[in-house]
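Quick review question:
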């Protein structure tokens, strides 16, 4: 048995930009052992690889995400990539919405013209009363606001130029007790409302190119400060990418585009490794948040 696997650039409309994700649709009845999926994700060596199992004949899928070193609880760009693959391959009809069942609950995906819209939980941040020690020294900048949500440390800097110039001490940053560090500022470039960068060395990703789940926090944050909804964000990594964000109560709609750059198959031996391992029928407990 061979298994198809894809590499998709998410939150971009052109190849070699945005955030690359692996997508591996799996046969029924369920997920292989987590160790096998972790090994595939390490082999892909992308920020995340998504693994999908269809629920019967429906457009519902169980979905799990792995970085090269850990399983994570929420990932936007690999969800976008997974939906893109399902529609592009005809596994789901183009007009049919998709529901993903994940460690963060049910996540929706729907096509909106050339864009894909994801329905994610809002993840607002609260101000921290006590700052991490030596924060400005490790970050390489002095934030004007510091907070956190259940995943990340969230920092606002004075302006877009400060975000783009940031060069934090990644080794020391990895010791902080957060999935990652989200750094943001009001956008200076016309057409955008906010810019950000995202660093997650503790989960094997020094800098994530475009982080969908981070915008679950940025949406509530900047909507309140700018008095605006919807918003358009730009993640100012080396690859770069844009994310549409719209608040809807305690949910956030994330819009992006995607491009398939690689299509292949896991070799017989690698794929048989999946079949030889115990199967589960749904999402397993997370090993670590991202």
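Suggested answer, residue by residue:
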């Amino acid at each position: 048995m061979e298994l198809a696997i894809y590499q998709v650039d998410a939150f971009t409309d052109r190849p070699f930009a945005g955030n690359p994700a692996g997508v591996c649709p799996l046969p029924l009845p369920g997920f292989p052992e987590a160790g096998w999926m972790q090994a595939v994700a390490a082999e892909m060596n992308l920020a995340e690889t998504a693994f999908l199992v269809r629920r019967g004949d429906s457009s519902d899928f169980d979905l799990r995400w792995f970085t090269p070193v850990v399983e994570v609880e929420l990932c936007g760009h690999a969800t976008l990539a997974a939906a893109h693959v399902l529609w592009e391959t005809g596994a789901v009809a183009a007009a049919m919405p998709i529901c993903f069942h994940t460690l963060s609950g049910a996540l929706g995906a729907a096509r909106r013209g050339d864009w894909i819209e994801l329905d994610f939980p809002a993840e607002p941040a609260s101000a921290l009363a006590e700052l991490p020690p030596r924060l400005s020294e490790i970050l390489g900048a002095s934030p004007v606001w510091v907070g956190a949500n259940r995943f990340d440390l969230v920092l606002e800097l004075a302006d877009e130029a400060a975000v783009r110039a940031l060069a934090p001490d990644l080794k020391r940053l990895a010791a902080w007790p957060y999935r990652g560090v989200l750094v943001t500022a009001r956008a200076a470039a016309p057409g955008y409302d906010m810019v950000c960068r995202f660093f997650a060395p503790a989960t094997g990703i020094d800098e994530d190119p475009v982080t969908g789940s981070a915008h679950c926090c940025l949406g509530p944050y900047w909507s309140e400060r700018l008095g605006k909804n919807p918003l358009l964000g730009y993640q100012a990594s080396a690859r770069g990418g844009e994310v549409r964000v719209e608040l809807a109560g305690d949910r956030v709609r994330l819009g992006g585009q995607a491009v398939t750059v690689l299509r292949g198959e896991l070799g017989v031996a690698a794929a048989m490794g999946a079949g030889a391992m115990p199967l589960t029928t749904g999402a397993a407990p997370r090993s670590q948040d991202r």
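Why it works: DSSP finds seven helices and 18 strands in the chain. The first strand starts at residue 3 and ends at 10.
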